[in-house]
Amino acid sequence: MTKFCIHSILNNTYKNYEIILVIDGNNELKKILDNEFKDIKNMIIIENEINLGPSVSRNRGVELAKGDIVAFIDDDAFASSEWLKNIIKNFSENPEISVVGGKLLPVYEDGSRKLPEELLWIVGGTYKGFPGNRQFVRNVFTGNMAVKRDIFRDTRFEIMYDKEKGLSHQLEDTLFCVRVNNIKPNTILYDPDIIVHHHVTKDKLRVGYIFKRSFSEGILKAKLKYINNSNSQKGNTNNILSSEHNYLNIVLRSIIKTLCELKIRNSTLMILTVLGVLSGYVNFLLTERYGRLLA
Fold first, then answer.
1. Is the dihedral of CA 102, 107, 108, 114 positive or negative?
2. Which tens digit of pLDDT belongs to each residue from 106-117?
3. Which of 77, 87, 186, 252 would you label with 287, given CA atoms 20 to 30 Å apart?
């Protein structure tokens, strides 16, 4: 998949770029890619000795970047042919923006099984409930995001990756965007014409994975609420979870709709997801109160 990702960038219509590939703890892969792309002059390949999570890699990559704009993509994804062109277009037409993000479309390994659109966030996709048109948003996602390098110097990604507990890094994305908004409010733009396709393996469609991912998301949202409450005491009264409240309404309506249409699998997965998120959210609150993780 990593080779496919790199080739998708090399085949982009916009050509004024450099590629910085950061590999996490896989020396064999680095040797293969060094040999495969040895003739690409505008490409740097580096390796972290151990896997410390995506935020460490992204921070390190930006440190090496020379351009004024830095774009992020995951190695299990591939960019549309005009990905870079549309990123640059947004920054050129809107010089005040700090960050621009785009649409993440799932590509299923098993084409016969798919998630409901409302749950695409579980597999790193743009979900039903996220804005459908070009507009300013609270946050975008690092699987398809670009930021001005001078803004990044003041924000960076906070390292919150906990592989042992199975917690994902999505809160790092959100908190990065929160810090950007604190420095330069309303400068994060979403453009659905900036398209990245994200590979989804069969194991991510299993009930166990869906619940675990939902549980983690509940913990992350509770942490976000906790951080927001701390900021409120400092005078920031924004409801940081307003997007989640709107999304919950959409999911609840979709559950009723799919039940009425006898789409049992979709309704079951959405109910499972809501229960998983709620369980994780409550778990974090109890952990904060009693000082131990209950799960």
1. positive
2. 999 877 789 999
3. 252
